[in-house]
Amino acid sequence: MQGQWRPDFARNLADGWMADGTVEPHDERSTVRAAGSMDTTIDDLSRFAAALVRGELLAPRALTEMTAPHLPITTRSQFPTLQDELPPEQRRKDLAAGLGVVVFDGPQGRGFFKGGHNDSTGNTLVCLPRGRRCVLLLANDVRAEPAFPHLVRFVLGEAGVPWSWEYGDRAFWDGR
């Protein structure tokens, strides 16, 4: 089944705001892509995240496999793509790719996150399975991203989220 834009979505959507303060109209994507094509509500996605971290959507073994460190992350940051790999001694041993999520080890145990953005929106989901706690942030203004590390830390405490890898050299991240 191929997903497509539905006109009934139009009454409940948000346009995005670019870094320079201009509005970016919502993109009514006509085809589904693996990254960046999902329209959702914070209510729907938060219910999904809560059920996931409580173990209600996947069998325990499937959740363990999803959040296991399957592939070492060998770059300094997520973007730009296709950057050179770091020498083994400079790679983060607390950071790896899971199945659809990035897995990290922090002071509260293993966690996972998934984030994304474009020129006018930003989002992040951070979960700590040991305490069955998640934080989900969806913003229709890319200028909200500098608040993400602070908001996640406020809600979860210091979790060890690898903000420097997620955002690279951008000046706003605060922490690891």
Structural summary, described in words:
This protein is an alpha+beta fold and 176 residues long. It has one domain (40-167): DD-peptidase/beta-lactamase superfamily (Beta-lactamase), CATH 3.40.710.10. Helix content is 19%, strand content 21%. It is built from four helices and eight strands. The strands form two sheets. Strands 3-4-5-6-7-8 form a six-stranded antiparallel sheet, sandwiched between helices. Strands 1-2 form a two-stranded antiparallel ribbon. Strand 5 (102-106) and strand 6 form a beta hairpin. The termini are far apart. The model has no long low-confidence stretch (mean pLDDT 88).
Q: Which class of secondary structure composition applies to the elements? A: alpha+beta
- Domain unit count: 1
Number of strands: 8
Instruction: Report the CATH C-level class.
Output: Alpha Beta
Task: Calculate the mean pLDDT score and round it.
Answer: 88
Q: CA-to-CA gap between the ends? A: 41 Å
Strand content: 15-25%
Provide the CATH topology.
Answer: Beta-lactamase
Our Rg estimate from Cα atoms comes to 17 Å
